[in-house]
Amino acid sequence: MQTKISYYPDQVILAEINGDIDHHTAKQIRADIDKAILEKDPKLLILSFSGVTFMDSSGIGLVMGRFKLMSDRGGELILTGAAGYIKKVFQLAGINSLTKMIDDISRYIKDENSADSDENKEVINDEAKAYQ
Question: What are phi and psi for residue 88, nearest 5 degrees?
């Protein structure tokens, strides 16, 4: 499981989640995203599920917790890249009534080149951390 965190102008954070989201991985994903939120205080958090291969109910908890954290801080959460079955799970859980689920994030990412610098990008690989 790897989570890539990118920082963009206008206080936007993009968290790209890859691999499985289950009770084994959700805790580390939450910690990585929460750390970025607490350090950068974004106005907008975008969670990308385009690299997610499996998700159980832990994914719903992951989204609900980030929604609450962003709401408490006066920010917004947007979901993107969810496969059909993941979108369906979110709809059944009512998450689509709390936050936007969109396909194209380009309007929210104003200066994509800025996220390419080492200063603005952080790749977190919790499997590598486990062996350190």
Answer: -60, -45
Long-range contacts of 91-97 (CB under 8 A, 24+ apart): 93/60, 95/60, 95/63, 95/64, 95/67
Per-residue pLDDT tens listing for the chain (132 residues): 689 999 999 999 999 999 999 999 999 999 999 999 999 999 999 999 999 999 999 999 999 999 999 999 999 999 999 999 999 999 999 999 999 999 999 999 876 444 444 444 454 444 434 333
**Structural domains of the chain, with CATH:** 2-130 (3.30.750.24)
Q: What's the rounded Cα separation, in Å, for the pair 53 and 131?
A: 23
CA dihedral 108, 123, 74, 46 (to 10 degrees): 40
Query: Of 32, 37, 11, nearest to 21 (Cα)?
Result: 32
Question: Which helix (H) or strand (E) element contains residue 87?
Answer: helix 84-93
> d(Cα 98, Cα 93) in Å, to the nearest integer?
10
